[in-house]
Write a structure and sequence with these properties.
Strand order of the largest sheet: 1-2
Number of helices: 14
Shape: globular
Number of strands: 2
Radius of gyration: 27 Å
Order of helices and strands: HHHHHHHHHEEHHHHH
Largest sheet: 2 strands, antiparallel
Strand content: under 5%
């Protein structure tokens, strides 16, 4: 039986290997050991694939940072003008630099789309000194990034093929605000499709490490930081929460702004990841599609409190407020 060592920790001062063996055997005999979640072989193989893809994407991000460092060494500030250095325009400019292009005016003319509105700024950003060794390094960076992209595409195709029997679950998760297909695949690989192993959504949140800690003694609340849980699922949901916070006119973005104003941005993102996890649990458990509650959900729920707070704020600024409902 595989168990969590934290649950059977021996009392300090009586710690020996033999004593641990006796203590664990005694707990097992009395039925006090609880087995940990061990997925089946198919899910373990899927986990290896999704985690390998995550590692590849992290390596790609690191290589992009190295590429930008090479450009900065040549005093080329492309990232200050283009939001995506490896976009269509940025890629053409980088390839021209690899081929020996050095005229900032000619390089700036390679811009496409909305980036052409910034050609004067682009010319100043590209007025650097590109040396032969930097040209060599830039070619290596682009080649490695292309190789990683090809490998990621192959791994993603393998993951999609293995998840074809549960494509309906992927679509249900993909419909949730902030959760894309890649996050949905990670969710299914880490949690699985059998949600009966988690008694409630709160148990799943505790297992994933996305719920507040509970540490109270003598009536005092101590640190309530989250536990480690499942780092792969936690990372994916935090990334999804950051995307959901930027989605305009949605319930999740309204919740993020509401929490960030009181608790800070980082805690608000963790709370939003917790909401996404609970939402995904109920969507798959009940087999229903995600329904956004709308950006005014919290205001409509506490309408009287919101009105009172806004009236007090206007009166504090020296106004006399008389509320009249608008005609429908």
């Amino acid at each position: 039986m595989l168990v969590n060592a934290h649950h059977i920790k021996q009392v300090p001062g009586r710690k020996t290997d033999v004593g641990d063996c006796e203590w664990i055997a005694d707990l097992l005999r009395h039925g006090l050991l609880k087995g940990s979640f061990v997925p089946d072989r198919a899910q373990r193989e899927l986990r290896e694939l999704t985690r390998y893809r995550t590692a590849l994407l992290q390596e790609r991000a690191a290589e992009v940072n190295r590429l930008q460092k090479t450009l900065e060494g040549a005093n080329i500030k492309l990232a200050a003008v283009a939001s995506d250095v490896l976009g269509k325009s940025g890629r053409q400019i980088l390839e021209a630099l690899v081929l020996g292009g050095s005229d900032a005016v000619e390089l700036a003319q390679l811009a496409k789309g909305r980036l052409r509105d910034k050609i004067p700024e682009l010319e100043r950003a590209l007025a650097g000194t590109f040396q032969p060794h930097q040209q060599f390094l830039l070619a290596r960076h682009l080649g490695l990034i292309d190789a990683i992209d090809e490998t990621v595409a192959q791994v993603s195709a393998e993951i999609a093929d293995r998840l074809r029997p549960v494509e309906a679950d992927v679509q249900l998760l993909d419909a949730i605000t902030g959760i894309g297909r890649r996050t949905a695949e990670v969710w299914l690989a880490e949690v699985g499709t059998d949600l009966e192993r988690f008694a409630t959504a709160s148990h799943l949140a505790s297992w994933a490490g996305l719920c507040p800690g509970n540490n109270e003694s003598a009536g005092k609340r101590k640190s309530g930081k989250t536990r480690k849980g499942n780092p792969n699922l936690r990372t994916a949901l935090v990334e999804a929460a950051q995307a959901a916070a930027r989605k305009r006119d949605s319930y999740l973005s309204a919740q993020y702004r509401r929490l960030a104003a009181r608790r800070g941005k980082k805690k608000a993102i963790i709370a939003l990841g917790h909401t996404l996890l609970i939402t995904a649990y109920h969507v798959l458990k009940r087999r229903v599609e995600f329904q956004d509650l709308g950006p005014t959900y919290f205001d409509d729920r506490n309408r009287t409190i919101v009105e009172r707070r806004l009236v007090r704020r206007l009166e504090g600024l020296g106004y006399k407020v008389n509320l009249q409902p608008a005609v429908a």
